[in-house]
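Q: I'm writing a short methods note and want an example of a predicted protein-small molecule complex. Could you take the sequence and the SMILES for magnesium ion and return the bound structure as tokens? Please keep the output block clean; save any remarks for afterwards.
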Amino acid sequence: MDAQDNTFTIRNLNFFYGSFRALSQISMDIKPCEVTALIGPSGCGKSTFLRCLNRMNDTISGIRLEGQVILEGENIYAEEMDLAQLRQRVGMVFQKPNPFPKSVFDNVAYGPRVLGYSRKKSDLMEVVEKSLRRAALWETVKDHLNEDAFSLSLGQQQRLCIARVLAVEAEVILMDEPCSALDPIDTRKVEDLIRELREQYTIVIVTHNMQQAARVSDQTGLFWLGELIEFNPTEKLFTTPDHELTEAYITGRMG
Ligand SMILES: Nc1ncnc2c1ncn2[C@@H]1O[C@H](COP(=O)(O)OP(=O)(O)OP(=O)(O)O)[C@@H](O)[C@H]1O
Ligand SMILES: [Mg+2]
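A: Understood, no commentary inside the block.
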């Protein structure tokens, strides 16, 4: 595949918090309809990198970025980039579920309302149902749509946050340790969902759990002290890695 077929083409990305260099010369191709997992020890720059993909770092003062982040041919750091549109196309799910203090329905309807997609209640209902179905949550919540989102279990709240991203027709879903607050059963449900969503979406997931990376992803990148040490098909990275550091990390000898 050529670079123009990538969802993201990242070239020589450097990222600084003040004088601290958090990312060094990262180049990576992120393919459409694949799950890309990012692993590595705490503080190695995984979240920083993820946030570079929808300019979520922009609000932090004193940051500086060099290099290129191209989304389907468009440099997302170009001046003319529309940030609201970028974040609609590249949605984000966080470590801790963060539903709005609103009803289940209003959480999912929020984005489409703000974007003015669906003005009629019946259209909105359709978007909400479709998004909740895709997030494997509809059967559970269909009779509780007007209840507070916080009445859901944590795992359900996380799937609600995923439904919220789906409702605005995102193309890419960034997930920063989306299961770390969940129990094993809810974790499995979110993993199943990730595998289903892969058919239609490009997913980039940060995880500390190497079994999870192995279970859900197609490609895996190992970060280490702000560098991308190895980026390979998941099976290769976990069985016959190219780098000794990867071998040491995945066998638990380092990190
Ligand atoms: N807002 C910030 N201001 C200054 N330094 C920061 C900021 N956010 C992160 N850093 C630093 O940048 C480096 C990378 O942090 P980042 O959060 O991206 O790592 P991470 O790989 O996601 O770690 P973890 O696995 O613990 O979540 C760390 O040294 C961190 O202290
Ligand atoms: Mg992090």
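A: Remarks, as requested: The chain has ten helices and ten strands. The chain has a mean pLDDT of 95.
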